[in-house]
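Quick note —
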Amino acid sequence: MPVEVNVRIKEVIQRNHNVKSFRLEINDWLDFKAGQFLMVTLKDDPALSRYLSISSSPTEKCYLEFTKKLTQSDFSASLNGLKPGDSVKIKYPMGQFVLDESAQKAAFLSGGIGITPIRSICKYVVDKNTGTDIVLVYSNRSIRDIVFKEDFSAMSSAYPLLRVAHVLCEAEKGFKCTVGQINAGVIKNEIPDYPERKFYLCGPPQMVEAMRNILTGQLGLNGEKVVTENFQGY
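Predicted structure written out below.
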């Protein structure tokens, strides 16, 4: 069952030009599964509450982390002002966007800040050395919009069964990527064994629905092999 607790900010990390991670001090550790989410409330104001994915892994025991794209909303403005030592209220864990460890092969399709629960899952797989074969296809507008770029580079180096393929709208000289958007052709090219994999989709709701339609409509996958979770975390 989810619990609600007041916690302090331990560290704030700038991930890119408009994304920050917030690490929380957790004294009484509550187990959660990689890929789950929490509710964050600022200033004890229900109007300043959002559901956000947990971006840390259960293997990272010294903190709990969530990551947010900072927009023009009142919530983002308040969140952006937080510093170490400040207090927030969280309710966690929630959600079923978790890895099926019985499946030997998995694929993740993600866009923008939708990468947060995937980072949690991949970090868990790497740290536990589960043997799961993973391909991540990650879409962004440009290289400056990629979140956890260095994290995924380090993880794929440490765990050869994790491969990351970037898809960008704007090409960057010297950076390996596919230019355009994720479509059936990109999936076939980057994941040639896609019929053998279980797919996990996370990103803006419109993108998630489009990816589901490609997988089940154009590529003929059974809907049971496609896992998604939609909530207002974007």
